[in-house]
Amino acid sequence: MQVAQAGRLSNVRYDIRGPVLRRARQLEAAGHEIIKLNLGNPAPFGLEAPPDVLSEVVKHIGDSQGYSDARGIYSARHAVAQAFERSGVAGIGPDDVFLGNGVSELIVMSLQALLDTGDEVLVPSPDYPLWTGAINLCGGRAVHYRCDEQQDWQPDLEHVASRISQRTRALVIINPNNPTGAVYSRQTMLGLLDLARRHNLLVLTDEIYDQICYDGAVHYPAAALAPDLLVLTLGGLSKTYRLAGFRSGWLVVSGPREHAADYLDGLELLANMRLCPNVPAQHAIEPALGGRVGISHLLQPGGRLRDQRDHAWQRLTAIPGVSCVLPAGALYLFPRLDPDLYRIDDDEQMMIDLLDQQHLLLSHGSGFNLPTTDHLRLVFLAPVPVLDDAIGRLATFLAGYQR
Predict the structure, then answer these.
(1) Are 313 and 335 members of one domain?
(2) Same domain flag for 280 and 306
(3) pTM over 0.70
(4) From the CB of residue 219, how many other CB atoms can be counted at a distance below 10 Å?
């Protein structure tokens, strides 16, 4: 019997973990060592959470054998609520917090509860592609708005406004942005939120990199800027707190809820259907948010992440025909390859060719729902010697590549 995938998957893409990653696995199985700068996964590069956070999880293993509340354990939800209060979001309590198995699960849940077939959601381009894939999976339509590379990848507010229709239900904001590293200005944030206000849109804001900002860049939480709007803020332990494998994420509901009671009932229904998030990993949230995991020392001049960002950016932009906006946040460089010098028709195939020739794994720009084939993403979590090796391989590859 032929077993085919469901038709609803026909327009769901997640290319950054598609054919390129499969080719990397094939090469590894054949005995080749691959330099992997494709994922924002801190642990493989020696960036780990302090032992006392892990010890809290170990200490509570015996208490974690049963299901928790469907929204997550109270102490962790309380810690998230307190962190939001400290960031200027008023009126948040534990009952406003849903914990999940990473932000990814919560993104899907928030959209499943919202979308009917044909409903539209505004998503930045480039985006973190799970947003687009999840919208399509839920029967909706992702409508991409332009982020302007000439303006340090800030969203083009006029273009956002032009993409709103009668079917638009929500606005997605990714700030700091993956893959560009843009940190949105206060003016940009207020402009986006004003569009949501004028068109009665739910705001879904992905703030997983909220504390990873460089050079004095300031992250403005959407919920703090718009207390009059219903805002769902998503964050977690994966990046700032270097606990990606724990899959500990949160969704915080803020703003007026009276007009959204039906939607929030649906969100709670979905939380109940998965019974609860992973219980042991939730015990890392309170110590992490309580100040036992700092990251500022990594972001200042002389700090590891800051120095790696600067070094990788300098090496990349020294390659002929390669330009890159210096990221103000997050963990990525998103360079542009001059189309006059590099004629690339298929950037996914280019990444496969790079793998075959140089054993280097990066991500292609169109995998982030960018409509052109002239960008790629490089993660700068690796130590400087590894970055030097990787960028040297990329330079060698580009010197003779046309496809």
Answers:
(1) yes
(2) no
(3) yes
(4) 18
